[in-house]
């Protein structure tokens, strides 16, 4: 099974695309109106899938600049970091492609983390959510976030958390995220505005 699984996606996708099939979309009915899913996103030209190396040339980094500073990332940098993520495991960078233009128009990352607590459980973090500004307001933000959230559930994570600006609280509340009383603070210590990309030894 291990070898078969590797042959079908390794090198092609950051993670096995079959993980996005048959997620529990019925459990989130009402959050997206009309109801769309990652496998039936409402338009034939919308494709929700794991990140690929080829996305470097499909505008993946360009849309991330609508979220934060990306810096000068060469293809070699991108490939090294992609392979770091693949090797490390636990990185589920998911994108939406407009197949008419072959451009990445949305992205969100689920990062899973092994814990000793919660019975050696797995927790999830939501990171780097963005939709290209010309495609906003069409539920694609909700679609990509709910996709990776359902994926976290499928992976067996006991919770998924995120940090966001105040004005986005209603966006996340509409898709099930809650501010837990006494537990909704986010604190930061910055070491570097543009962290270096390094390969773990
Ligand atoms: C964990 C993190 O990564 S937090 C960082 C989030 N990303 C960013 O801030 C990057 C810039 N912003 C974006 O890329 C987009 O505005 C996103 C991803 C936040 C939302 O994408 P969209 O495709 O526009 O979202 P979508 O169409 O699914 O909107 C759903 C609802 O959220 C609301 N909403 C969307 N964006 C915003 C916003 N910036 N501020 C307030 N409300 C918003 C919409 O009004 C809509 O409400 P409705 O369903 O009642 O009409």
UniProtKB/TrEMBL annotation:
Transferase listed as a keyword: yes
InterPro entries noted in UniProt: Acyl_CoA_acyltransferase, GNAT_dom, GNPNAT1-like
Superkingdom of the organism of origin: Eukaryota
Regions crossing the membrane: none
Entries under Pfam families matching the protein: Acetyltransf_1
Keywords: Acyltransferase, Transferase
Annotated catalysed reactions: D-glucosamine 6-phosphate + acetyl-CoA = N-acetyl-D-glucosamine 6-phosphate + CoA + H(+)
One MF term in the entry's GO annotations: glucosamine 6-phosphate N-acetyltransferase activity
Pathway: Nucleotide-sugar biosynthesis; UDP-N-acetyl-alpha-D-glucosamine biosynthesis; N-acetyl-alpha-D-glucosamine 1-phosphate from alpha-D-glucosamine 6-phosphate (route I): step 1/2
CDD domains: NAT_SF
Keyword DNA-binding: no
GO biological process, one term: UDP-N-acetylglucosamine biosynthetic process
Domain called N-acetyltransferase: residue spans: 46-201
Enzyme class: transferase
Enzyme Commission designation: 2.3.1.4
Family classification: Belongs to the acetyltransferase family. GNA1 subfamily.
Protein name: Glucosamine 6-phosphate N-acetyltransferase
Taxonomic lineage: Eukaryota, Metazoa, Ecdysozoa, Arthropoda, Hexapoda
